Amino acid sequence: MMLKYLSAPLVGIFCLLLVAPTLAGERGGPEEAKAMALHAANALRSLGTYAAFEAFQSPGPPFHDRDLYIFVLNRDGIVQAHGSEPEMAGENRLDYKDSKGRTFVREIVAMPDQGWVNYLYNDPLTGKVLPKQTYVVRVGDYVVCVGAYSEESESEAPPPARQPSRSLKSR
């Protein structure tokens, strides 16, 4: 009889244990964004533009993971590929501004090698404007980008900063 009373809570706890990792891991972090951007940059170098852009816009791994996706811009700010919104390909986003009036696309396309650009952007999971930290890798005339959203509200957003880093690899 005691087993009867314990079985329902035990089943509930077991189900919660199965679901908890999924709930906790629905977002990719900055280090995962950086790793994906570097992987995508290598794919662009090895596959060429057409095959790489197709791969970046295809659903699923390795270029989609939870809320992480690839987007590629040319030096003029024109979207070449976009993993979350493929219909954006061909759009000029150079003067696009975040909710604070910051022209972050100009910062992204000006990245000389690789580094971070922080800005506010619409989160596809919540529909809210959230801080986004995007890792940018220059590959010739393109920048390959992957951004990680923060769960902080817009008012708690970290101050904008561009932190270029230098690649140790020779090209």
Domain module tally: 1
CATH first level: which class?
Alpha Beta
| Computed Rg | 19 Å
Element pattern in H and E: HHHEEEHEEEE
Low-confidence spans = 5-24, 155-171
> Which percent bin holds the helix content?
25-40%
Written description of the protein model:
This is Single Cache domain 2-containing protein. The protein has 171 residues and is of the alpha+beta class. It has a single domain (27-164), classed as Beta-Lactamase, CATH 3.30.450. It has helices at 2-24, 30-47, 49-57, 104-109, and strands at residues 64-65, 68-74, 79-82, 114-122, 129-139, 142-149, 162-165. The protein is globular, with a radius of gyration of 19 Å. The termini are far apart.
Question: What are the key terms here?
Answer:
33% helix, alpha+beta, 7 strands, 171 residues, sCache_2, 4 helices, transmembrane, disordered C terminus, single chain, cell membrane, Single Cache domain 2-containing protein, Beta-Lactamase
In brief:
With 171 residues, this protein is an alpha+beta fold. The chain has helices spanning 2-24, 30-47, 49-57, 104-109, and strands spanning 64-65, 68-74, 79-82, 114-122, 129-139, 142-149, 162-165.
Topology:
Blueprint: H1 2-24, H2 30-47, H3 49-57, E1 64-65, E2 68-74, E3 79-82, H4 104-109, E4 114-122, E5 129-139, E6 142-149, E7 162-165
Antiparallel strand pairs: 1-2, 2-3, 2-6, 4-5, 4-7, 5-6
